[in-house]
Automatic annotation (TrEMBL):
It comes from the Eukaryota. This is Uncharacterized protein. Keywords: Signal. Residues 1-23 form the signal peptide.
């Protein structure tokens, strides 16, 4: 199975991400994933199943990372079940190789988020902002309110 097909299958699996525009010339702009229900939620302050609206690609002059590392990170996160919690003003950061996904909570309360939404939003951002067939500059999507977001970026 080709790397591209594998990535497309992972992205299509399930997510709450929409990548509809890009500031990076030549970056893919066709990654759209519909939101699913929030049945994994255990609290009222859960954002599982909410659409992660694409905001931007990172500057094309910034550091890049291997898309295959993002695919591995996505698969690792998809293997986790359930949800995680992020305190107000805090982040959940997950890294594999050159790829990092960050969930940032800018709400004044602790939020609950699903591992599968996090994984797929991260990969959708990375794939939607590819600059070549193997590298990406990363991107960012978030809640319509702007109070939480998922970012894909190069590992520090």
């Amino acid at each position: 199975m080709s790397s591209f097909l594998f990535k497309a299958l992972i992205v299509a699996f399930s997510a709450a991400a929409i990548v509809s525009s890009s500031a990076v010339p030549g970056a893919r702009r066709d990654v759209t994933i519909n939101a699913r229900d929030f049945s994994e939620c255990t609290t009222e302050d859960c954002v599982c199943g909410q659409t992660c609206r694409f905001a931007e690609c990172s500057p094309s002059t910034g550091p890049t990372f291997e898309t295959d590392d993002c695919v591995t990170l996505t698969n690792t996160l998809l293997a986790r079940t359930g949800t995680f919690f992020v305190a107000a003003g805090a982040q959940q950061v997950e890294t594999y190789g050159t790829c990092t996904y960050t969930f940032e909570n800018d709400f004044p309360i602790t939020l609950e988020y699903c591992w599968d939404d996090f994984a797929n939003a991260g990969l959708a951002n990375a794939s939607g902002c590819e600059t070549t067939t193997t590298e990406t500059v990363g991107g960012k999507c978030g809640a319509e309110s702007g109070l939480w977001f998922v970012q894909s970026s190069a590992s520090a």
